[in-house]
Amino acid sequence: MTAGLRRQRGFTLLGLLIATGLGAIVLLTAGESLLTARQMERIDRSTARNLDGARLALTLIAGSLRQAGYPGCHPDRRRNLVSTGEDPAVPAISTSNGLTIRTLRSLGQRGIVGAPVTGESLSLDRAHGVEPGQPVVVVNASGSGCVLFRQATTAIDTLDRGPGAAAINRVPAEGYRPMGERVEILVPERTTFFVDTAVGSEDGSSLFRRRESTGGDREELVVGVQSLTVEAGIDDNGDGYADRTVTGAAGLDGLDIVFVGVALQMAGANQRVATTIALRNARP
Predict the structure, then answer these.
(1) Number of domains in the chain
(2) Quick one: which of 88, 200, 201, 270 is 20 to 30 A from 207 by CA?
(3) Per residue in 60-90, pLDDT tens?
(4) Residue 50 in contact with residue 198, Cβ under 8 Å?
(5) Last residue of a domain, one of 155, 189, 223
(6) What was the pLDDT predicted at 214?
(7) Range of 63's domain?
(8) CA distance 123 to 169
(9) Are 235 and 242 in contact (CB under 8 A)?
(10) Which distant-in-sequence residues (6+ apart) come within 8 Å of 197 by Cβ?
(11) Distance between CA atoms of 209 and 56, rounded to whole angstroms?
């Protein structure tokens, strides 16, 4: 009787050790599962943020591409007075070092003093913001015409489309077109998107942007972008459709580019975002 009661008093030391060990294993397994789940959640959030950033960057690139080659007004209404015939919006696209997009950026409207003006000098009601020698397009607000020239004076409130001391502009045989009471002023803008080493990292990479309007400083847009791929559709026979595509750092000068495709590959994951934009302004 006594021996039977002794056997029924509770767990043995061995049983307690086994139960404790099993409990510890269960707790460790649960802890590892929770840690793994949290790590996966952090990775998913980081990936989602990177993808959101890549999509935003792609939106910025697409917006720039839609403006690529913009001449400031309808090509049939623009007169180029630059003595060399240079056009600051050409080539609209180049891919020699990333993706470079050229267009014209508006400085806003100004009033013309003594309008309409048919001479070289255009006196304005306030400063124009154009540097001497800089290409500039001046567009009649009425849309009746526009002119491309290099600023031939240092005056901050006068635009000069004359030849100047260095003959930077030609004098049109047919005379200068009259400029109305209000004009819009546009200057060249060049934007380059490229991938380089991330700021503060030795092995990571990011998508960067340089803009002429901000002095060419590097702007880090998206961390974790591994590569930027550019593909251009070329129309060889003038029918408005792409006959072939070129990728990478191929020379695009003088080619009729129908569309540009851009893809961003994210580092460390098989994630890729891409878009294709039809070019309108850059078509001949």
Answers:
(1) 2
(2) 88
(3) 999 999 999 999 988 888 999 999 999 999 9
(4) no
(5) 189
(6) 93
(7) 47-72+191-278
(8) 18
(9) yes
(10) 204, 205, 206
(11) 13
Per-residue DSSP letters for the chain? -HHHHHHTSS--HHHHHHHHHHHHHHHHHHHHHHHHHHHHHHHHHHHHHHHHHHHHHHHHHHHHHHTTT--SS-GGGEEE-BTT---TT-SSEE-TTSEEEEEEEEEEEEEBTTSSB-SSEEEBSS---PPTT-EEEEEETTSS-EEEEE-----TTEEE-S-TTTT-BPPPTT-PPPB-SEEEEEEEEEEEEEEEEPTT-SS-EEEEEEEGGGTT-EEEEEETEEEEEEEEEE-SSSSSS-SEEEETT---TT--EEEEEEEEEETTSS-EEEEEEE-STT--
For residue 164, the one-letter residue type is G
The tokens describing 106, both together, are 């508006």
